[in-house]
Amino acid sequence: MNMSMSSGQRIIVRCMCGGTRDNHEPGCPQERLNNLVTQQRHIRCPKCGHPAVGVNDDDFYECRDCHTQYTIANMFENAEREFLDDPRASDIRAVQVHPLKGTGKFRLDKLIDEARAELVKASKKKRRH
What we know:
By secondary structure, this protein is α+β, with helices and mostly antiparallel strands. It contains two helices and six strands, in the order H-E-E-E-E-E-E-H. The protein has one domain.
């Protein structure tokens, strides 16, 4: 007799849009949130060491913690040079430290917050019905 022991059963979780966890309906807020989160970056900051560097609204790399900005272009003479290990780039990025601190505005972070709020609102609406 051939018996096997499975490590566990797969639980199918229903999404609020009617699809499953892995197969969302078009326009599903959870799918939108998932797509936005995969675009978000959390690169280690060479200055403070926190995994908080992303692309800000001015299209510079900026640390969400210390607000140091980095640019891949040679924009400034005698600027300090650092390296960013961006997993989306083909290699480690040589960057210049921007002389001005960033403002902490990240378009993608705002879109993620909005998508999360939309998801909470939709789930509360679904519970009422």
